[in-house]
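Collaborator request, handled under Task 6.
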Amino acid sequence: MSEKKTPAFKGTKEQESELLKVIEKYKGTEGALIPTLHEAQEIYGYLPVEVQQIISDGLGISMAEIYGVVTFYTQFTTNPKGRYKIAVCLGTACYVKGSGDILEKIMEKLGIGVGECSEDGKYSLDATRCIGACGLAPVMTVNDDVYGRLVPDDVEGILAKYVD
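Structure tokens returned to the collaborator:
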């Protein structure tokens, strides 16, 4: 199994300063962890271990507890997202109609796997469950754009729209 590609953490001093203000706002408050994590993810776009450590130090909460919360709730992510967030539906209707082949084609074209972000930060790829567009199966999204009734040969043309 290949190791996931994750761009190196590139937090700025401004982001860290903003995070420390958030921590100070919630410090000593019961139930402070989840709102702190939400605001931290707004600042950084995701919750890498470096950010979790700052929160751990600032709130006096163990890394184990923080990691447990971050990995339990689906609204939190430990992986950066690309400028173009690609998601392929693997719900039953989409999967039966070939979304697995669509996903394979995207991975081949971008050179990244599910849950990964390209090294340039341009693309990230996720597999999702039903997105409620079963009549358009198989479906993929790029940010807020929805593409349906796909075949693998459609992938290259779709990705070409997101090159800059």
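The cover message to the collaborator said: "The chain has two domains: 13-72, 84-160. Helices lie at 13-26, 33-44, 49-59, 63-72, 92-96, 99-110, 155-160. Please let us know whether this matches your experimental observations."
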